[in-house]
């Protein structure tokens, strides 16, 4: 089920109403939420075009299998002594099941394609291989969430819940199941194992987050999508400026799409009295690429830092190994995002950019300016933002194009194809939607808060801002159920 | 030497600044180079300096230097 579909709106209203009818019995609420989460997730399989027979139930079966396997391993290893060999075996079996399922369902197509290509190079022809694979939505997200639970239980910082159902809900909680935030056990699990309340403040702030999320997704990302689809269509004629604007617009689209999803997820969850971690903090205001990764898809970058970068730094110890560890982490991030050479290359470019920044900036301490207050600080801020935005745009070319040749042609075209009068349309789109994003994000960035208007702002100010947002949504948005870009990951 | 004073030496070494002064209230916001990568370097240096082992979630959920001092003291007592 997609957040931007009429079905979801009906689904959520029903869930919300029934959920709070059971307000005094949180265990009943959990059972109900778990059932609702399976309906939400199963809906996708039963309504996806091209799926027949058992394939329609497969995504749900995989989710439940992953939940059972992860919890059984966690419960089995927890009481064993740390140095026990059995504990190590159970832990690695749990990891292997999760990674194996992800690998098989997400990467076997990519793997087979490359085996075929390699065989062709050697003069063999392998053509009988299966080509159409189902990629269960959100498998990368819930696999990582399950892995973090298993690692935390093994590390001793998390006790497995006594009831399987509490973990099952943590693993399948519908607001964040298919596209994050990738939650961590210390934040989400305790909230699911106690009484939840809904205060008027929580209700309003949750509702505001949902509205902001829909504006970002429906009125910004979906409105831009047709323009970027044209700009990245190699069959159409493009000027250099048109190609450049296409990348800028895609940067706005993917941000609106993904951060909008996170806002809706966090808002819906808050309406049910459960707080999810923040996933985006105005990433395009970053002054360097390291800061960008601390503001973009925070739940994934912190996951990679804690469960991959830290172990790598323990194995390859010392400052001289940091660039290597960073590069490997970003490479894995690229592979996590998609099963294609484009994403491998994307991860490598990001790794190289991060390493360059680390080497250039060095470890020197200095006073961290929260906000620029002098003309010089503003100049540094704006120059940093400009460079970082363009570096990110360069990497996004690999996300949007289908292969490396297309990516190269797109970037090379910017410098060789001049401009044309047709560039006015994407230019106007970029100016308008760029302004909307800045207006939404600047107050959050400046005041370091999650929403553009403060809760204690005069009611006319709040009314004005949310009136404008609702107008934007009404005039520019259509609940057409255009898929979220990040679902493919 | 108090934990905070010893920790200050680690900070000075990691952030390459001999004049750096930290307090319990110091956060990553106060030191320009204290980003997520440098945080990991810092935590591993802390492990070496105090001969303790920090878990992933302990590293991730620290709010300020005071939290870190408390965590080190708790670990050393064990």
Provide an overview of this structure.
The complex is a heterodimer of chains A (489) and B (78). Helices cover 70% and strands 0% of the residues of chain A. Chain A is built from 18 helices and no strands. Chain A has 489 residues and is an all-alpha fold. Chain A has helices at residues 6-21, 26-47, 58-77, 85-121, 139-155, 164-172, 174-177, 185-192, 200-231, 240-271, 289-295, 298-315, 322-337, 341-361, 375-400, 404-416, 424-447, 459-476. Chain A has 2 domains: 6-119 and 127-196, no CATH class; 201-362 and 375-488, no CATH class. In chain A, helix 3 (58-77) runs parallel beside helix 5 (139-155) and helix 9 packs antiparallel against helix 10. The two termini of chain A are 16 Å apart. Chain B has a single domain, classed as Orthogonal Bundle (Non-ribosomal Peptide Synthetase Peptidyl Carrier Protein, Chain A), CATH 1.10.1200. Chain B has helices spanning 3-14, 36-50, 56-60, 65-77. Chain B is globular and about 30 Å long. Chain B is mostly helical. Chain B starts with a helix and ends with a helix. In chain B, helix 1 packs across helix 2 (36-50). The chains are: A mainly alpha (489), B mainly alpha (78). Chains A and B meet through helix 5, helix 11, helix 12 and helix 14 of A and helix 2 and helix 3 of B.
């Amino acid at each position: 089920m997609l957040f931007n579909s009429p079905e979801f709106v009906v689904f959520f209203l029903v869930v919300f109403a029934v959920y709070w009818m059971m307000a005094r019995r949180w265990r009943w609420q959990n059972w109900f939420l778990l059932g609702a989460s399976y309906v939400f997730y199963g809906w996708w399989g039963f309504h996806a075009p091209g799926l027949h027979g058992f394939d329609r139930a497969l995504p749900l079966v995989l989710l439940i299998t992953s939940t059972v396997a992860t919890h059984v391993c966690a419960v089995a290893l927890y009481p064993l002594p740390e140095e026990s060999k059995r504990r190590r075996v159970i832990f690695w079996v749990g990891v292997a099941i999760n990674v194996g399922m992800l690998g098989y369902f997400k990467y076997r197509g990519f793997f087979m394609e490359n085996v075929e290509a390699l065989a062709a190079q050697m003069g063999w022809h392998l053509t009988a291989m299966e080509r159409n694979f189902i990629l269960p939505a959100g498998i990368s997200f819930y696999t990582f969430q399950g892995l973090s639970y298993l690692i935390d239980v093994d590390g001793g910082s998390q006790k497995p819940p006594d009831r399987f159902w509490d973990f099952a809900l943590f693993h399948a909680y519908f607001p964040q199941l298919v596209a994050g935030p990738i939650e961590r056990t210390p934040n989400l699990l305790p909230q699911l194992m106690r009484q939840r309340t809904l205060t008027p403040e929580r209700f309003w702030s949750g509702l505001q987050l949902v509205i902001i999320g829909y504006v970002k997704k429906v009125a910004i990302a979906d409105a831009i999508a047709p323009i970027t689809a044209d700009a990245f269509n190699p069959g159409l004629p493009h000027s250099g400026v048109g190609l450049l604007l296409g990348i800028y617009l895609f940067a706005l689209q993917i941000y609106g799409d993904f951060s909008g999803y996170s806002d809706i997820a966090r808002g819906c969850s808050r309406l049910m009295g459960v707080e999810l971690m923040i996933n985006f903090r105005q990433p395009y205001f970053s002054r360097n690429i390291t800061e960008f990764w601390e503001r973009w898809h925070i739940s994934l970058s912190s996951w990679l830092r804690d469960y991959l970068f830290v172990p790598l730094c323990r194995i390859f110890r010392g400052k001289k190994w940091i660039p290597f560890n960073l590069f490997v982490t970003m490479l894995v991030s690229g592979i996590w995002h998609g099963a294609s050479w484009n994403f491998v290359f994307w991860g490598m470019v990001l790794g190289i950019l991060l390493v360059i920044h680390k080497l250039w900036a060095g470890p020197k301490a200095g006073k961290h300016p929260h906000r620029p207050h002098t003309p010089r600080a503003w100049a540094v801020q704006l120059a940093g933002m400009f460079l970082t935005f363009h570096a990110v745009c360069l990497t996004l070319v690999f996300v949007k194009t289908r292969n490396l040749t297309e990516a190269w042609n797109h970037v090379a075209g910017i410098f060789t194809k001049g401009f044309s009068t047709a560039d006015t349309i994407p230019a106007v789109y970029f100016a308008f939607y760029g302004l909307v994003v800045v207006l939404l994000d600047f107050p959050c960035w400046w005041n370091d808060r999650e929403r553009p208007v403060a809760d204690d702002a005069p009611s006319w100010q709040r009314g004005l801002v949310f009136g404008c947002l609702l107008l934007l949504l009404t005039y520019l948005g259509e609940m057409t159920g255009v898929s979220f870009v990040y679902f493919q990951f | 030497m108090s934990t905070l004073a010893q920790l200050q030496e680690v900070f000075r070494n990691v952030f390459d600044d001999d004049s750096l002064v930290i307090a319990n209230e110091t956060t990553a916001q106060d030191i320009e180079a204290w980003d997520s990568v440098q945080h990991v370097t810092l935590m591993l240096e802390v492990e070496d300096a105090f001969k303790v082992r920090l878990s992933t979630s302990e590293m991730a959920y620290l709010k300020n230097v005071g939290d870190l001092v408390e965590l080190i003291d708790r670990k050393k007592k064990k």
